[in-house]
Structure formats: C-alpha cells, structure tokens
Amino acid sequence: MKRIYELIAPCHFGLEAVLKKEIIDLGYEISQVEDGRVTFTGDDEAICRANVFLRTAERVLLKAGSFQAESFEELFQNTKAIAWEELIPKDGKFWVAKASSIKSRLFSPSDIQRIMKKAMVERMKAAYGTEIFPETGSSYPLRVFLHKDQVTVGIDTSGDSLHKRGYRTLVSKAPITETLAAALILLSPWKRDRILVDPFCGSGTFPIEAAMMAANIAPGMNRSFLAEDWKNLISRKCWYEAMDEANEMVDDKAETDIQGYDIDGAIVKAARANAQAAGVDHMIHFQERPVSALSHPKKYGFLITNPPYGERIEEKERLPELYRQLGERLAALDSWSAYIITAYEDAEKYMGRRADKNRKIYNGMMKTYFYQFAGPKPPAKKRDRGCGP
After folding, report:
1. Which residues of the chain have a pLDDT value below 50?
2. For position 32, which CATH number holds?
3. Are 185 and 263 members of one domain?
4. What's the Cα-to-Cα distance from 318 to each of 84, 107, 124, 176, 278, rounded to whole Å?
5. pLDDT at res. 312
6. What is the DSSP annotation of 314-352?
7. Which long-range contacts (CB under 8 A, 24 or more apart) does 224-227 make?
8. Domain assignment present for 231
9. Residue 252, pLDDT score
10. Whole-prediction pTM value?
C-alpha cells in the first residue's frame, strides 16, 4: 500500500491561485492555501510528477510535521517527537537549510536551525541505537516556516529551485524567473493559437515559457531532483514513469506565432541560445528591435512583457519616454491585449492608459504590479458544416 504524504509547494506571493489550479489539474487534492504556498496530498508518485510538471512552484517539500512552539524548549521537544527515522535513513545527510519566522516569538534563524538539528539527532540516536551518524548518504535538507508561533517543517525534494529548468545559461541584467513568467502567462487568456510578443524579451524567458506550454514540454524534463536519490522513500521507477509521461505529452508539431524583441543584439543572441537549449528555438522569432518599432500586421495578439523599471538612477531618467513609446505602440495595436509586470509606479501615467486590472505580486522582496490591458475577443471561427442538407 502506497504511503500518502502532505506536500508543500511554495510560490510567489500573490500567485497561489495559479499554482492551486496546476496542482488540481495534475489530479491532486488541495489541503491548504496560505500566503506563498499551497499544501496538497499525494503519494511518492505525486512527488515525482509535481517536480516534473509544475510550472509555477518554487520547489516541492515533503511535510514532516507541524506544531506550536513559543519557546526553544517547545521547539526542541516537538521536533524530537517527529518520526525522523521513517523519513531519513541512518546514513542520510540532514540539516535545516533554511528557517523563516514571521510574527513569532522565536525569530533567530540560526538558533532555530541549531536547536532543530540537535533534536533530530537525539531522536535518531534512540531510533537507530547509535551515537554517531556518518551523514555520507543522500541529502535531506529541511525548510522550516514559523508563522504566529506555528511551525511547519518540510524536507526539500527538489534541490535547486524549480525555476532552474536547465535551459537558461545566459541571462540579461534583470531577468524574470521562469516560474514567475509561467505564472503570468497562465494568468492571461493566451493560448497557443494566438500571437504573443515580448518587446523587452531579455534572455527570452516569456517567449520560451510560452513555447514550452504550447508544445506541452514539462518544465522539469531537462534537470534532476534531490529526491531521485531517496531510495528509502521513492523508487527509481516512479521517476522513470514521470519522465516517460512527460516525453509522451510533447507535441513537436505545435504551430505558434511567438516573437521576442530586445534593443541589445548580444542579449537577443543569448535568448536564441536559451531557446535552443529548451528545444523551442524553431517556435520563436527573436529580433533586435527597439520598442518604438513594435508593430504586427495581425489582430488580436498578446503582448506579455517585463519592461525596465529603473533600478539604477541613470535608467530611471529614461523610463517616462520608454513607457510613453510602449503606450503609443500598444494604442496602434488596438485589438491587442497587454500584460505588463513592472515595479515602476508611473507606468500607467506615461503609457496614457489605465489598466483594466492591476494585480500586486511580490518578485522576491520587490513589490511589482501586473497591469492587465484587455483587448477585444476575436470573432468566433465559423464551423464548417460540410456538404450535407
């Protein structure tokens, strides 16, 4: 009988609903949605499939336990009460890789990490009947969240963050992460039969993520995961089956009109290399072009982009003109929809248009705005009724 786990998938603050839908679409039941993470239930197969298929999760954690702790003694005793021997083998390497605390009495990450490690050792000493742990085996790093004195403990199954798809070796100055780009595309009504243009494509993340969606390429197909070495919990067969499922879903013949422009020719070259690494270079047209030259002969397209927002003073001085040009070109594309993420608070002012929707999203610690300008829907395609009477 397969063991059922609670699994925690952290994500960008403000994008929990997108991740929740992804998890439900994979066939798993949601048990809790909180700021910045979604908890769901699943077996060892779910651990593999979530890592391979989720586009918007930052990582997948196996929930080891949760409890209340207002003192370090409570933290120690409750950590020690978790059956670590059922999750970590005798030779496993284990440590608290990260601890975060919000509105809790215990707030020192280093003290939390030290005390929890000590408690785990004490539990496993008794369970395994040994005083020494070689820690020469597979890695089981913990991530711990404290919120209002409630402690949630998860073991990281992913290793490197899931935004590291394996294709982006060359990046622009201020790249958007792959997970955030994927979430923003999923927040829009864009589908693969519609045009998509990114006039500030940088290293190509928006066009590449869109092309991967269009071709049904799972985001985790070209990378490895930490839990692949957890032979005590997950068989290699589960990982092989998840990868086989991903390979069977790929649609190499998907036809798209996806374009990426940037004013920097070297960055455009890097974007092409990244698209090639992702296996979607044949689906995207990259070109060196300023935003002032943005145009397209077809109607009802989508503009999805991450323009500069002036992190340096000299860049900030150029922003009014840049956003004015963007607004002018969007006005000329009067049947198009635009989805723009930026930290520049005067974006609407200089674009000369109020967004239909404005969603606040945290990109790491930076507050950004996702401006959504909805264009008209294209006319419904006429269905061929055939030659019958």
Report:
1. 386-389
2. 3.30.2130.30
3. yes
4. 56, 41, 59, 20, 33
5. 64
6. HHHTTHHHHHHHHHHHHHHSTT-EEEEEES-TTHHHHHT
7. 224/159, 225/48, 225/51, 225/157, 225/158, 225/159, 226/138, 226/139, 226/141, 226/156, 226/157, 226/158, 226/159, 227/47, 227/48, 227/51, 227/62, 227/157, 227/158, 227/159
8. no
9. 86
10. 0.94
| Residue at token pair 């408690």 | 119
Q: What is the pLDDT of residues 20-69, one digit of tens each?
A: 999 999 999 999 999 999 999 999 999 999 999 999 999 999 999 999 99
Q: What's the pLDDT at 382?
A: 63
* Residue 208 and residue 173 in contact, taking contact as beta carbons nearer than 8 Å: no
DSSP state of 220: T
Question: How many other C-beta atoms lie within 10 A of the C-beta of residue 318?
Answer: 11
Residues paired with 140 in a beta bridge: 94
Provide the domain count of the chain.
Answer: 2
**What does the pLDDT read at residue 313?**
60
List, in order, residues 6 or more apart from 116 with CB less than 8 Å away. 75, 76, 79, 96, 99, 142, 144, 153
Helices (H), 89-137: 109-128
Q: Which tokens is 347 given?
A: 């974006």
Which 3 state secondary structure label does DSSP give 134?
A: coil
Residue carrying structure tokens 């790491």: 364
Domain boundaries, position 96: 5-156
**C-alpha–C-alpha distance, residues 155 and 333, integer Å:** 48
Is residue 383 a part of any domain in this protein? no
pLDDT digit string, tens, across residues 239-293 = 999 999 999 999 989 999 999 999 999 999 999 999 999 999 999 999 999 999 9
Query: What's the residue count for the chain?
Result: 389
- For the chain, the average pLDDT equals 94
Alpha helices, DSSP H only, in the chain?
Answer: 16-26, 44-53, 72-80, 109-128, 178-187, 205-214, 236-249, 265-278, 313-316, 319-332, 347-351
* Percentage of the chain exceeding pLDDT 70: 95
